[in-house]
Amino acid sequence: MSGHTPGPWEVEDYKGQVMVACGDPCAEWICEVMGGYSKANAQLIAAAPDGVELDTTSILFIDEYPHNPHKRKACLQAAKEFLAKATREEE
């Protein structure tokens, strides 16, 4: 048990409010995000489960395969995907 609602989490517009939700569609609200940067902040929050998975995987790969270029490349690709999700522009 990870101690948090499993992902994926998505940013939703619910009646003009920025929400982070989990499920199909919006089966569980994670949080409401307010303020001037609410969409960008919601993207960061929604990416949190992916960040936890990335950190866990990266630590495992680095610890067990420190000199394996294929594992390092996989970690790098996962990090790029996480960063893209966490910082993507508003649609």
Question: What labels describe this entry?
Answer:
alpha+beta, 2 domains, 20% strand, 49% helix, 91 residues, 3 strands
Describe the structure.
The chain is an alpha+beta fold and 91 residues long. The chain folds into two domains: 46 residues, no CATH class; 38 residues, no CATH class. It is 49% helix and 20% strand. The protein has a three-stranded antiparallel β-sheet, covered by helices on one side.
Average pLDDT reading: 82
Order of adjacent strands in the largest pleated sheet: 1-2-3
Share of β-strand residues: 15-25%
- The gross shape turns out to be elongated
Low-confidence blocks of residues: none
Helix content class: 40-55%
Largest pleated sheet: 3 strands, antiparallel
Distance between the termini: 33 Å
Q: What count of domains describes the coordinates?
A: 2
Round the Cα radius of gyration to an integer and report it.
15 Å
Q: Please tally the helical runs, counting DSSP H or I stretches of 4 or more residues.
A: 3
- Encode the helix/strand succession as letters: EEEHHH
What is the tally of beta strands?
3
Which structural class should the secondary elements be placed in?
A: alpha+beta
